[in-house]
Amino acid sequence: METTQKSSTGEEFQPLKAQRLSGAAADQLIELIRSGRLAPGTRLPSEREMVKILGFSRNSYREAIRVLETMGLLHVAPGIGTWVCEKPQWAGADLGMEWLATHERQVFELLEVRDALEVKVVALAAKRASEAQLEAIKSQLDRMRRAVDCEDVEEILAADTAFHAAVAEASGNRVLESAQASLYESLIDTRRAMISIPGRLRRMDTEHRAIAEAIFSRDPDAAARTMAVHAVRVEREVSVAIHAVDHPGNTI
Q1: Percentage of the chain surpassing pLDDT 90?
Q2: Where do the domains of the chain lie, and which CATH numbers do they carry?
Q3: Which end of the chain, N or C, is less surrounded by CB atoms within 10 Å?
């Protein structure tokens, strides 16, 4: 744990405007890390101090910290403090993140379509799925976990596609099922690039399992909410990854 380096005084940070606070906080933190103003090993001010400095809610701050921890930029020790990682986990992920950055508009347009489509799909699946269809969803979920454990990218992509296809079939709407299959073909490069984002694999299994559990509970509203939360998190991580390669003069 990086506890031996200097602490930030808080002078590096600027108050944020009211809109998209968690995103603005994440962007400000990553820029400070990239520029070296928050050096590796630097301890951030306390949550209370940061909320006061930046002028936003604790929930917004916590979401920003969660995103950067997932990205491998921050180390969080609950009850102790938060530090900039000594060796941020961007090594080996440059190619995928560069692809996301150079296809930014296409990526976010496709993600917006996917989000709108799948929120409806999972809600219908929770309402209509047969026992056999629920078993098929579980089978693909287990397949994905094995692929994630082995870090087999092509098998992860195949299992992810099969999982969402099983959910779409369980929706009982053939038009939605066909639309999702077509969309996932368009998303293949985006999904492959997203897997390279540090921390994404670690979250992938957990997030898909939460979606599946909501479907298994036969609660359409819970399934829709869980899918919406997943979508927001993915878009946030993609945004942070793109921001990280948007300043070629800086390196982490």
Answers
A1: 39
A2: 21-84 (1.10.10.10), 94-244 (1.20.120.530)
A3: N
